Amino acid sequence: MTSTTTTPQSATTAVALSGVTKVYGRGASAVLALDGVSLDVAPGEFVCLVGASGCGKSTLLNLVAGLDRVSGGQITLAGDANPGLMFQEPALFPWLTVDANVEVPLKLRRLPRAQRRERVAELLRTVHLADFGRKRPHELSGGMRQRVALARTLALDTRVLLMDEPFGALDAMTRDILHDELERIWSERQLSVLFVTHNVREAARLADRIILLSSRPGRIIYSTEVNIPRPRRIDSPEVAAIAAEVTERLRTEVGRHGQ
Amino acid sequence: MASDTLTSSARTDAEITGLDALEIAGRDKEVSRGTRLWAATWPKLAALAIAIAAWQLVVLSGWKPPYSLPGPLEVGRELMAQAQSPQLWDGLVTTLRRAAVGYVFSVAVGLLLGLAVARSTVLRAAIGSMITALQTMPSIAWFPLAILLFELSEKAIFFVVVLGAAPSIANGVISGVDYVPPLLLRAGRNLGARGLNLYRYVIAPAALPAIVAGLKQGWAFSWRSLMAGELLVVGISQTSLGAQLTYSRELSDAPWLLSTMIVILVVGLVVDAAFGAADKAIRRRWGVLDQAGQ
């Protein structure tokens, strides 16, 4: 079948998925994780993928990130930088300081030392951690670690950010603040974001477009534009209304599996 | 609208700084170096004092005649005398040289073997369990073969030291590589570390604690094998510590024997302490010590 390609494309889509299928295993025990998922993310667009367990959300991000291969269909990325991927856990390297963690992608791109220093300082300022460069990850709180991870991902200089429930393990207050932060960075840097979450309110708070995936196999079953002006608040009635609508659809989908 | 955004972002900044300050508070607790050193030292000194006292008591009880079990005072005097004679130092140098050569070679073999087995499924299936089997083989059981192969020579000792230490080191590397968190591998690959760079930036540092544990165990094995070898393969060198043990027994010179044993014990302890310090430094960097309440 066709394979993943990463070729420069027209500027109208940042990420294009067409008929993406993923099968794990083979023969009788094969599991269809994703079934014909087609989706375009426009440059600068914030897309949230919502779904219950087993909808293949993380699989989808892995495929776009190039960490796994599609079984069918095509994924096309605009530009030459590989997309940055963030997880629910910060996945920082515990043996490195905050500075050195953010420096890793710069080192791998062979940037000269002086330039690396400058970039690291700039990125840490962006996530409000300028004073914490000498700390080690274990000395920071969960929210701070996740911001270091964000800075490290931004160090890839990518225009595409893939986020796999990045705030799922944080308390509500920290999460709200990080929503504000992410929104600011996204608009400042004109990023295209593909954000996976099972928190419908979070999706309504952040997204330009919410896409609902069915479970086993993952298929797109619903998609809605979120036209609430920014900056938004997660407790605003408009966000709540969108969330209620998406939740309704999600429950119907979950109920289908109980029959 | 623009000013509204500005004030809201200024507020967010203040909130973030406030939240960080609250979360970080109380995490830094500095204990002075002297206090820490004393806390680590006094239990050891106390244990040593108790051991010497027990030894003295056994001697006083008259369980064995003093020519086979001398008291700590007599052994201490012998040790001082030994320390002033070249014999002890020559022996120490000979033994440490053998230990160093054997150990360095074991480390090279162990690291390469471990890395090869960790990388290749075929090699792992073929010799993975054999490495563990080698580790359980008492090193002294290799000596008859080693003597047949290399006669009573340093080569025989070297052979057994490497066979004793290399499997432990290889096992350390294998388990270190095996237990690198998959999440860190995914993160590393996403950040652009592929091939050798993945080893350099992710796998090697992540496996380091297990590798150091393997190196430490490897040292213990090589030191024991070396002592066994020096006891058995006497005659090639007059002065090694193992040879001195044999001679002192043949001469029924119990104070000499015991003082030599003490030297062997101290060497083992010193090297072990060095590994312990390395291990602790790594765990502190990783933040594992903090969780243990240290």
From TrEMBL, chain A:
Q: Which CDD domains match?
A: ABC_NrtD_SsuB_transporters
Q: Which UniProt keywords apply?
A: ATP-binding, Nucleotide-binding, Transport
Q: Which domain of life is it from?
A: Bacteria
ABC transporter domain residues are: 15-240
Which InterPro entries does the record cross-reference, listed alphabetically? AAA+_ATPase, ABC_transporter-like_ATP-bd, ABC_transporter-like_CS, ABC_transporter_ATP-bind, P-loop_NTPase
Q: Answer yes or no on keyword Nucleotide-binding.
A: yes
Q: What is this protein called?
A: Sulfate ABC transporter ATP-binding protein
GO MF annotation, one: ATP binding
Signal peptide span per the entry?
A: none
Keyword Nucleotide-binding attached: yes
Automatic annotation (TrEMBL), chain B:
Cell compartment(s), UniProt: Cell membrane
Membrane topology, as annotated: Multi-pass membrane protein
Spell out the GO cellular component terms annotated for this protein, sorted alphabetically and separated by semicolons.
Answer: plasma membrane
- Keywords recorded for this protein, A-Z: Cell membrane, Membrane, Transmembrane, Transmembrane helix, Transport
- PROSITE patterns the record matches: ABC_TM1
- Taxonomy, superkingdom: Bacteria
User: What InterPro entries is this protein classified in?
Assistant: MetI-like (IPR000515), MetI-like_sf (IPR035906)
List, in alphabetical order, the GO biological process terms annotated in this UniProt record: transmembrane transport
Q: Which Pfam families match?
A: BPD_transp_1
Q: Does the keyword Aminoacyl-tRNA synthetase apply?
A: no
Which regions span the lipid bilayer?
45-63, 100-118, 130-150, 156-177, 198-215, 256-275
Q: Which residues form the ABC transmembrane type-1 domain?
A: 92-275
> So what family is this one in?
Belongs to the binding-protein-dependent transport system permease family.
Name under which the protein is recorded:
ABC transporter permease
Organism (species): Micromonospora inaquosa
